[in-house]
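wait is this the right file?? whatever heres the structure
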């Protein structure tokens, strides 16, 4: 059997099944956006790791070092946001093809990561450096904290919950298409920025968790359907997504047709938006609306969770439902 037959999620599940035993202070090991470790009576430590690999996540000749640094931190911050946590510090491990990568690029990378870190109030606390021959790679570990009773897990979704997302979906995937296809960039700067300079929803995740609003939460890194599938599987419920409710930005609506034949598929399956997807009990929808006003960001209801639903179903404008393939971005799987 090859690795690609299992795919990323299949592989992770296999590891989690094989090594299930954890000491009691590990509140969550493999399987959520970050590990949760009991620290004191009222605090937990959060730990997440994410990497960016040249040729898969970025191309060095098309990427500014500064933006790459900020993005490497952003994708990790997004996982702390998804737990409702507060970031503390991060390590940066680099594999550097030393004959090819310029010192200027690395300086710009550190300038980018540390200035973004300053903005997000998180400190560089270490790392590791090695020659890596062919490919440049960047691997971060990010430490965070949260109040013990306030952490939000993927598996907390309940029968009857409403599903919400922050912001807009599909922008980052469209930004990537625009950058790949070249041509005029006028008016598309925001979409390109959503791909190259994502802004994780850290304060939104914190505000949601502080007020105890979500039952389940995850960040959308692999695409709405793939990430919703994690909530569905771990919560033991199904989901129905109202297609007309999936929020698309004005720029997305203006440009998507020009780049893809099926813009809706991009909004449902495109990765790297780093928005938050969360489920709430219906009686809390008023609190969600209030928070949306306070944070000046759309928090849009896109569907619901229900025990009687099996898997994920998509409902179109005419009210017809069809079963969805939860196919998001998985590096190892094709098709
Ligand atoms: P995210 O998309 O939020 O970064 P991932 O899908 O990368 O989450 O990871 C899901 C879970 O699997 C996390 O708990 C992560 O720590 C764990 N995980 C991922 N890769 C490995 C691995 N190679 N070995 C052990 N655990 C892993
Ligand atoms: Mg995540």
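ok assuming it is, sequence goes like this
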């Amino acid at each position: 059997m090859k690795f690609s037959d299992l795919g990323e999620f299949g592989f992770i599940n296999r590891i989690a099944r094989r090594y299930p035993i954890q000491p009691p202070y590990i509140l969550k090991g493999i399987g959520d956006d970050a590990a949760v470790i009991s620290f004191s009576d009222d605090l937990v430590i959060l730990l997440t790791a994410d990497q960016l690999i040249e040729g898969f996540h970025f191309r060095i000749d098309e990427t500014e070092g500064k933006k790459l640094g900020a993005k490497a931190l952003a994708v990790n911050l997004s996982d702390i946001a998804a737990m409702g946590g507060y970031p503390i510090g991060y390590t940066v491990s680099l594999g550097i093809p030393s004959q090819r990568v310029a010192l200027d690029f690395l300086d710009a990378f550190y300038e980018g990561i540390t200035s973004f870190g300053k903005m997000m109030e998180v400190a560089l606390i270490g790392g590791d450096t090695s020659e890596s021959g062919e490919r440049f790679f960047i691997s971060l570990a990010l430490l965070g904290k949260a109040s013990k009773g306030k952490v939000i897990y993927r598996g907390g979704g309940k029968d009857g919950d409403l599903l919400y997302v922050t912001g807009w979906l599909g922008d980052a995937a469209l930004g990537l298409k625009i950058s790949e296809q070249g041509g005029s960039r006028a008016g598309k700067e925001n979409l390109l920025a959503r791909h190259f300079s994502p802004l994780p929803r850290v304060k939104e995740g914190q505000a949601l968790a502080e007020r105890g609003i979500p039952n389940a939460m995850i960040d959308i890194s692999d695409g709405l359907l793939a990430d919703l599938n994690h909530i569905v599987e771990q919560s033991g419920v199904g989901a129905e997504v109202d297609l007309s409710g999936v929020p698309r930005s004005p720029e997305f609506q203006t440009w998507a047709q020009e780049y893809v034949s099926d813009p809706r598929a991009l909004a449902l399956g495109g990765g790297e938006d780093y928005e938050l997807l969360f489920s709430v009990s219906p009686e809390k929808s008023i609190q969600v609306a209030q928070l949306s006003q306070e944070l000046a960001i759309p928090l849009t209801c896109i569907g619901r969770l229900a025990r009687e639903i099996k898997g994920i179903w998509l409902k179109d404008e005419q009210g017809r439902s069809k079963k969805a393939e939860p196919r998001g971005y998985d590096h190892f799987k094709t098709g």
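The pocket of adenosine-5'-diphosphate (ligand 1) is lined by residues 12, 15, 30-33, 50, 79, 221-222 (CB under 6 Å). so i think its the right one actually
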